[in-house]
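ingest -> validate -> predict -> emit
validate: passed (alphabet ok, no gaps, 797 aa)
predict: started
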Amino acid sequence: MPTIPANYRALAGSRRTPRKGALRTADASPDEQIDVSLRLRRRPDAPALSDPARAKPGATTLSREDFAARYGASAVDLDQVAAFATGAGLAVVERSVARRTVVVRGTVAQMNAAFGVDLGIYKTAAETYRGRDGEIHVPTAIHDIVEGVFGLDNRRMAEPMLRFSGRTPADNAPAQATVPMTPQAVAQLYGFPATGAAGQTIGIFEFGGGYLASDLQLFFSSVQAPVPSVTPVSILGQENNPGSDSYTTETLLDIGVSGAAAQGARLAVYFAPWTEQGWVDIVTTAIHDTVNRPSVISISYGWPENDTINGLTWSLAAIQAVNTTFQEAAAMGVSVFVSSGDNGSGCGVGDGKAHVLYPGSDPMVTCAGGTTLSNVSGSSFTEDVWNDNGVTGGGISDIFCPPNFALPVWQAGANVPGSVNDGHAGRGIPDIAGNADPDSGYTLFQNGSNIGAVGGTSATAPLYAALAAVLNAKLGRPVGYLNPTLYTAPFRSVFRDVNDGRSNASGGAAGYTAGPNWDACTGWGSMNGTTLLNLLAPAPAEGTLGFIKTTNTPNGHVEVHLASGCSGFQTRILETATTFADESDGTWQFLSNLDLGFIKTANTPSGRVEVHVASRSSNYQTRTLEAATSFANETDGVWGLLPNLDLVFVKTANTPNGHVEVHIASRSSNYQTRTLETATTFANETDGTWQILANQDLAFIKTANTPSGHVEVHIASRSSNYQTRTLETATTFANETDGTWQLLPNLDLVFVKTANTPSGQVEVHIASKSSNYQTRIVETPTTFAEEQDGVWSLVLA
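emit:
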């Protein structure tokens, strides 16, 4: 039994029990050196994270840098945990704000003492592992900071989901109903857009094995596709280590399917140990990777939620850490696809009960089940539940159900059945399905030899990850977390329902039967990529195009004209005169609620800048704010109102030190108190547009005199006091000054061209941030004739 110091407390969710049938045969060697990962809470002042279960297609996402700044670990917490570790004689080998992780190194004896555990050697018929029985303990001083400790126990927690075809090449005659295919052929059957995935990165998780470049060359040559750029990423010392094992086969399958179906995408292959620590660290590393920046994750591994007599073999803390990171992926627009498993309802546990695999059962991932493709003729084919040479996984979660987790709200209308074990309600999987039968699988090459066709739901996850990458590239933005969208009625047309009455019962366990609509064998069915694209594609533009006409109006009053984006800016939803007389001595802008703001910066009675706001609800006849500010009249820069109505002045010329300055006066002080006055990293510059974003980052859109002749976007962060540039990039747009430039809240770049257009009509052009401004997602003329007597902007109201 471990010795627990009096000032220590048990970590919630840390309890682990031995593997089924495992016996403790010895104490772990006290001198063995191990690395342990401590997962910390989010910074205490982090704002609430939006509910991903209610996400909508095209919702604004955060950059990895912004997410880390808002939701990462605090420096104080990192310091306190590091101090605990060094005080316990442990070495701190890594600290990460974004991953909220401190990695420490020490001996087993030091870990036993530091965490109140008693590590031992456990043996089963299948493995020998270092493990523990019971809870982890930490000092009371850091108890509320540390959410989990991973790496003390190194039992296997990952297996690949692949199956080999039993056929020889001679068996695969054209007359066979089911024959090996190429990823491109399957993608074509499933209607994937044939546009490639240039500019995207697919992250692939592996827990062993590796790949030889020569094997990749053989495969891609055989399917007549270019070899993708593949980058290995080592985690916790796990390297790309190809061999003759199934883990290497898995790696080759994942790379081959995703690379051939999403040509042009880069692949980042993350290698981690097959432990709980490996899971936590691979997920947090990939999701927060600011070097490779995967927009899609493919996971072809899992482990049964329950495979011990006494309960979870996963610790609840590990599942919560991974689940929370998947939520973070959703906030950053990263899609995650996970295989459902190849051993049917029993998951290979052998206890006569139905199980599902984690992380496929996590509600924050899109879980992919398996089908068999046969009788392919042109675009026609037969699709059935895969249950002959392997069986699709699927069922009801024992973890993602009350009281530990709420049921996913988006699954409420899917008629998910109760568990065949005891009838309890839980998260049902899979969500989708696709080609998994190894007889209709993909011929691979390993160590230079043709190893025949390989399949499994291991082949389904990378296939749909490839689809997401293609859609991201086509849309110019990430499709992100898809589940809430896929379960809505309008998206039923995306699916090919697999309704053949077959079961996924296996291993003596009861199973689930494929039927109409959603079922626990194939989810909603296989997806048609083009149909999904068409439903996800935005209207011609989101938001409202606003024109504030400030001079030469018929009645001498400023006018507001609005055209709706959903009409392609062809329908005017408002045309009205306002309470303001024509005026050009200042800055006009629409606020987020379409109220009209005017910042008068010259010729004011008091010699002070004034703020005036007229409400949209009064048709701009009622002024809700009129105030003189602490600023003297000033025109050497850009004025604006933030969403909270704080007043911002970006001084871009004639500053004392030659650098652009940011000044903010608070609305709460009636603009008498300056909450910020600082010089920035930018030299004074007038060849473009300056904008303070909603998070108070400073953006400069340089529209003339750029080195490349293309418009550039530069952003300096508020968190660095405008000393660090978080973005500097050239765009698809040639330098252009005949219009208005702005960044939307999701950092998409908007150009409203107001003069010298081919049609004589004002045009709206939008380039997506997700494509690094290389893809234009909107290019359309509007109902407005060219006009410069006022201010144009796109408003997401």
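DSSP finds twelve helices and 49 strands in the chain.
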